[in-house]
Amino acid sequence: MAREIIQTDQAPQAIGTYSQAVKVGSTVYLSGQIPLVPETMALVEGDMEAQIRRVFDNLQAVARAAGGSLQDAAKLNIFLTDLGHFALVNQVMADYFEQPYPARAALGVASLPKGAAVEMDAILELDG
């Protein structure tokens, strides 16, 4: 099955040797997103909620470029430098997802690229 590389200027450009997403058949693998503002490639200003929302906005932009949305997510992985923000992630996530929610993992990590406090990646399954 052919692989299609997904790229959009509505999300941050890759800061390494990876694609924003890869689509194989009806499955889309979204690379990890940190809270970078696409236009400036700088971390979003503001509190932890602003960082979480920027990550979801970035993931949503890549999902749309692939022909889907976050509602198509089958799996979501969340990486936090402080698991004390777990409840806030749940609260913000409710603004971006409707039931049924995707499968999910949340992991505490020592550090993330560019000093970010949160990173997320996802796997989408598109209908048709």
CATH class: Alpha Beta
What is the overall silhouette? globular
Strand content: 25-35%
Average pLDDT: 97
> In percent, how helical is the residue content?
10-25%
Q: Which structural category fits the helices and strands?
A: alpha+beta
Stated plainly, the CATH topology is called 60s Ribosomal Protein L30, Chain: A
Sheet with most strands = 6 strands, mixed
Gross CATH architecture: 2-Layer Sandwich
**Number of helical segments with 4 or more residues:** 2
Return residue spans where pLDDT drops below 50 for at least 5 consecutive residues: none
Query: How many beta-strand segments?
Result: 6
CATH superfamily descriptor: RutC-like
The helix-strand sequence is EEEHEHEE
Q: Domains counted in the coordinates: how many? A: 1
